[in-house]
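Hey Z.,

So I finally got round to the adenosine-5'-diphosphate thing we talked about over coffee. Here's the setup:
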Amino acid sequence: MNKTTLGIIGGGQLGSFLADAAKKIDVKTVILSDDPDAPGKHFSTKFIYGEYDDKVTINNFINEVDLVTYEFENIPFTILKKINEKKEVLPKPEINKLIQHRKTEKNFLNENNIITTKYVTIKNEKDLNDNTNLLPGLLKTTTLGYDGKGQYKLESLEDLNSEIDFSKEYILEKLINIKKEISVVVTRYEKNNYEIYEPIENVHEDQILKYSVIPSNISEDILKKTMKWAKKVAEKLDYIGTLCVEFFIDEDDNLYANEVAPRVHNSGHLTMNSHNISQFENHVRAVCGLERIETKKIYNAKMINLIGDDITLYRNKTFNDNEFFYDYLKKEIKNKRKMGHITIIEK
Ligand code: ADP
Ligand code: MG
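And the result:
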């Protein structure tokens, strides 16, 4: 029996899968969530409900665990830093701080010669007027955005509307003519010690991931470059655990890094069925300092996200032996909410 108890902040599907992977390798887990109905409570050894900024809750959590990781990046840095004074937080809080802000994230990538789309900070309408060279573009909030939330497409300044709240800070990003979206999931154990998954091809609908496939249909050159860049990101961040780098390929085959997720990633869900070791197990192994096991693909696979009502079609369905259905057990079905997924392996 392993002696480590891993604390996980966040009890959504990512936290659930982390806890499930931990169970298989005898690592105990405590999930902390601000949602009393978080799906993670069905998977972790222990579940603590409370607000992330509540001292008593945080202390209870810290006392139960040996180290802490997180399933989402939008936790205030000050909270992670406080926890880290008592129990180690991995990935390091400073990494989270850098990545959770779209501008510092993109600056970091460019400083390391990793190409991104062109972008500029926007604080008010005047900044937009001064940067019309980036139109058509996407205006994105610098913090707290996910699944396309907090994003506005601007063909021209005429598309500005009252929904856009300039008390928030934005970046304006040049719109790319996307041919393909790719992601690379990598788990770094220590310096130059990795498990890296092959590039995953992703299709989005309404800016939300709809499905993911391996192998991706890309050139050898692009494949190598995406994997090289993903490793470089992990190395430069001195990262421990699983991260994901999202990429765009445009119509002229230019490659751009879009964003970094300092955590396990939706596109990596297929690794639970396609590989001997999933992105979740690799994350738990890396942060807990356990043995790294050579990660190999067993099957090609496709993962389909079940969003909103999609889930109802699957709950009573019978599946073939190459189909794996995951119900996130969320209490309420909501429009655009990720409710589950199905992975189909190619046998
Ligand atoms: P989120 O944090 O919501 O995932 P992203 O920056 O990844 O934000 O954007 C979500 C999706 O919107 C992307 O996967 C892509 O499909 C589309 N998108 C984002 N930025 C651009 C861009 N500059 N040009 C074209 N499409 C984009
Ligand atoms: Mg994204």
